[in-house]
Amino acid sequence: MIRFILVVWRNFKEYIILVLLLITSLITLSLNQKPEIKKVRAIAFGTFASVTSVVSNLINPAKLQSENDRLLKVNAELMLQVNRLRNYGIQNAELKGLVGLKDTSDYPLIPATIVSKSLNKAQSTVTINAGSSAGVKPGMPVINDQGLVGIIYSTSEDFAIARTLKNIDLKITVKDERSRVDGVMKWNGEDLVIIDVPKTYDIETGDRIITSEISSIVPVPLPVGFVTGLSKVETGIFNEVKIKPFVDFVKVENVFVLGIVQSKQKNDLELNFFNTEK
Amino acid sequence: MRSDYFISLLIFFPVLVIQTTIVPLISLSGVVPDLILIVLVYYSIRNGQIYGAVAGFVFGLFFDLITGSLLGSAMLSKTFVGFIAGYFSNENKREIYLHSYPFILIVLLCSIIDSIVYAFFSDTDFNRNVLLLFFEQGMLPGLFTAVVSLLVMIFAPKRRFG
Q1: CB atoms A121 and B141 under 8 Å
Q2: This model's pTM is above 0.80
Q3: Do residue B119 and residue A44 have CB atoms under 8 angstroms apart?
């Protein structure tokens, strides 16, 4: 018997090793959500990111001048916008006082720089140099001056990994800013799309898409992109709305983490709503 | 061969740093060359299928852990690719494969397989046009990686092969 096993091993060891490694990989695929794996991941990317941050700092100074020029322009535009909004704010405060509403517009912004990027067609991620010690938690939105970049997926003490919008594992509830139509947006490997949108819904090319307040991940309106077209219009009763994101994921360098996490209270309420045993 | 395990692992980490910091700067419409795959193919041709599969497994494991992609997806694709690249580890033709144009073709083949297996296991939407999917997720990154592998073909040390 042992001799037979030895003969098989001698003749087919390449294939036996391949099959064993492939089976191990397949088993690992099912372990992604285990807390132990998340801990190992946090240690691994935290250690690695401390190296990439050094390299990233060496590369960045060359780009700082152009980035500074762009930021100066953005600052000037924002200053004009702030003045306008300040007037609206004063009016708004008076009106809110009249109807007894509370103001909920202050969100903490945690500044961060992207130290490494993993760009591929299915699972684009970025590593930023702000982690749990800066108050970053999984689920927090990552933004820049153009709009939503992604969502924090995992954190170590000093670094965090964020899934960009071009990651098939990220699905976000968004809405058409003009027509207020809600839908679920995802990356399908090629385009950013809002899926299963009834053909009767009022969505037009050029419409701005923002995150929806009914989203349990990003409950504040953040710009996402604009509609570039509808697909699957010939068949079925649903459209797929193609979106071009505002953010250029290849060029983005400096970001902010929005210091809010998905509302557990809201999630619990929604879960209770569907819990028929109670 | 045993030292090659350590050398390739030592090379892997600087290459991963370059892959995640500098390579994105030369991306074309979000398509980037896969330097890790080039290293894997190179060492697999040098050392054979078992080496290729094991090295691919280890490279994929670290890649998944460090970049935050679905743990197991790159492990699977890189293991498979390492095994395939190791098929070309023929003692008589090794030098030819590593230092002439076949190396680019092997990298192209491996890169296409890697991209497709990776896309399959990372849950890409297969309701879309399969040909388009093959072109965008297989051919484009494959071609880009193959072009970059030209540098490895030219600058790889020749006298170290026995």
Answers
A1: yes
A2: no
A3: no
